[in-house]
């Protein structure tokens, strides 16, 4: 008799557990289905209707083509300051080889010659900083829109200087013969703006 009572209680407990588990599982499925339906409805509301292009996107200006079709026209000179330094080109030289003072090497161009620019930079910022000197920071532009970065092989170097002081240094470009820069673009690593100045 006792065994029968225990078995009955055990079966009742198992049945109650199974019913509770199944009820919970079905409730969770209903909740999940309702949540997914709400998300889908929200996406449909946010999606633009057919033919609706949304807010107009401002396009980046496309560089002008030069008259002879060579490429983009060089940027116009806008001023000597990149927000941290004011730049001035003191001299331009064309050489067949360049002796690097800092690394002590003499370099031969992989193109046909080097253009060497002598630059004075004056710190107009609020703290010590280094002017534009590395590839990507100084770009020489020809009139027909060809852009040249400074040479990676040459150890170009400029001192970090305090506000109100100036430094003089050289940057070197490896170029084909006949290359002449119209403007030079300079922007130091931390500079907020870009200086574009006449090359000659």
From TrEMBL:
It comes from the Bacteria. Residues 46-82 are annotated as: Disordered. Residues 55-67 have a biased composition (Acidic residues). The chain crosses the membrane at residues 6-28. This is DUF4352 domain-containing protein. Residues 106-180 form the DUF4352 domain. Gene3D superfamilies: 2.60.40.1240. It comes from Nocardiopsis endophytica. Keywords: Membrane, Signal, Transmembrane, Transmembrane helix.
């Amino acid at each position: 008799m006792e065994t029968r009572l225990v078995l009955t209680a055990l079966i009742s407990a198992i049945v109650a557990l199974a019913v509770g588990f199944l009820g919970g599982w079905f409730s969770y499925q209903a909740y999940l289905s309702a949540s997914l339906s709400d998300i889908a409805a929200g996406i449909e509301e946010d999606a633009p209707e057919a033919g609706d292009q949304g807010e107009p996107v401002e396009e980046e200006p496309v560089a002008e083509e030069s008259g002879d079709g060579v490429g983009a026209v060089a940027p116009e000179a806008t001023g000597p300051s990149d927000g941290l330094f004011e730049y001035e080109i003191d001299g331009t030289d064309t050489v067949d080889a360049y002796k690097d003072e800092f690394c002590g090497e003499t370099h031969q161009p992989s193109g046909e010659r080097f253009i060497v620019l002598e630059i004075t930079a004056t710190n107009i910022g609020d703290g010590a900083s280094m002017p534009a000197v590395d590839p990507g920071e100084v770009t020489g532009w020809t009139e027909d829109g060809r852009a040249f970065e400074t040479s990676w092989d040459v150890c170009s170097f400029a001192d970090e200087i305090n506000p109100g002081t100036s430094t003089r240094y050289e940057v070197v470009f490896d170029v084909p013969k006949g290359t002449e820069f119209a403007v030079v673009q300079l922007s130091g690593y931390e500079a907020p703006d870009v200086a574009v100045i006449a090359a000659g």
